[in-house]
């Protein structure tokens, strides 16, 4: 889906071949060679805006894609025993990577995870999915979470991010 909002076109006599687009707040800046015709400009704007939208969609999966990924992980690592009612990104979690409410089977992931490696997001999903089976953090919980092969690596990654950002760690555990 192409972006909506203001589009600023910047032409450069030094730019010879490339046309690029980037976000600058609510505005999209398109940079292109100065010598393009108006028709070529419109074609290139449509092309680069579509590319930008595809790139952003890959980097920031939707709630629907996150839900699908959670179901796939539940089947692969938890024998399909964890069935969330919803999985979504939220922007109001600053001290946790994710949260789960077993009563209504909802999972929320912090928007701070966006842009992190997929295997880290997968770990947080598996962690939260496991709460649908085991509410606490006891041995049975960790036995299930550790079915995910990159658990230790992802926990280390998140601990490093948390330490760098000054986020709290509870009892030596990463904030998940």
In short:
A hairpin with a 2-residue loop joins strand 2 and strand 3 (27-33).
Question: Can you give a write-up of this model?
Answer:
The strands form 2 sheets. This protein has a 3-stranded mixed sheet, covered by helices on one side. The chain has helices at residues 38-59, 63-77, 118-131, 139-145, 151-165; strands spanning 7-12, 20-24, 27-33, 86-90, 98-101, 106-110. It folds into 2 domains: 7-59, no CATH class; 63-165, Zincin-like, CATH 3.30.2010.10. By secondary structure, the chain is of the alpha/beta class. The protein is built from 5 helices and 6 strands, in the order βββααβββααα. Strand 5 (98-101) and strand 6 (106-110) form a beta hairpin. It starts with 6 loop residues before the first strand and ends in an 11-residue tail after the last helix.
